[in-house]
Write a structure and sequence with these properties.
Length: 262
């Protein structure tokens, strides 16, 4: 790929820093995207103790997103999970259609538990929903792209994060397709690291302070069933990870949130 017009070439020095620049312990993807292959690197650990702060749960029996039963099982899982956390949740989607379908299916069952569903684009803007989540602990936000990064909710107001699908770009998107064509191995060199970075950004919404504690549930079994799934998990900070059936997950979430760290 040609990077003749790279803006960094006009600077004597530039520092790029972020919690989500690396994938699988290296910076190859972002360096290629930015045209700075000769940059010096430094990969540091997190100041947070993720082993004590965050529990990641992966269901063993959830159908893959392409399965006809997935949407129904997703709704059932969210009703149980958000009930176990008493709201205080952020659910990340990769499409507005899936968000709206899930909100329609889960709104009444959750409201019967005293939990308010706040769906992006349905119940308000991203900023409005965040303020309502902070003000009312028994609420859950259903969000898409703008909620995967750049939001900051400290404390118990956000105690559960649910990632409904691995955030791969739509292959037919014209921009994505054009950029993919520039790579010899589009999936491995472009689609996968791009999705991993967004996955890391989504994961990062949960723990925003050293005193924060919460659970992350990934309702996409491809993180275990596909060979590339380990790339997502290896790119995260070292949190506690457990696998269980979808029926067992709510109890695990409840116990984790109720327990005091040692």
């Amino acid at each position: 790929m040609s990077h003749i017009n790279c803006p960094f070439s006009q600077k004597s020095g530039v520092v790029l820093t972020s919690a989500t620049l690396s994938t699988s312990g290296h910076f190859d993807y972002v360096k290629q995207r930015l045209g700075v292959q000769d940059a010096e690197e430094l990969l540091l650990g997190s100041p947070f103790d993720y082993k004590r702060a965050a529990l990641m749960l992966i269901p063993t029996d959830m159908p893959e997103p392409s399965h006809p039963r997935y949407q129904k099982d997703l709704g059932a899982a969210l009703i149980a999970l958000c009930g176990a956390s008493k709201g205080r949740a952020l659910v990340l989607f990769t499409s507005h259609a899936a968000l709206r379908a899930t909100a329609h299916a889960t709104r009444q069952p959750l409201e019967r538990q005293g939990i308010r569903v706040l769906a992006q684009g349905v119940d308000g803007t991203a900023a409005e929903l965040l303020e309502r989540l902070k003000a009312r602990s028994s609420a859950v936000i259903y969000g898409t792209s703008s909620f995967w990064e750049g939001i900051d909710v400290v404390g118990e107001a956000l105690s559960l994060l649910v990632i409904t699908k691995l955030p791969f770009s739509v292959p037919t998107d014209p921009v994505f397709a054009a950029r993919s064509a520039l790579f010899d191995e589009p999936f491995r060199e472009f689609a996968l690291p791009q999705a991993v970075l967004k996955f890391k950004q989504g994961f990062g919404r949960l723990i925003r302070h050293k005193a924060d504690r919460g659970a992350v549930v990934v309702l996409d079994r491809r993180v275990r069933s596909k060979g590339y799934g380990k790339t997502f998990l290896e790119s995260l900070p070292g949190c506690s990870i457990s696998e269980a059936s979808t029926q067992q997950l709510p109890a695990l979430v409840g116990r984790w949130l109720a327990a005091r760290p040692a």
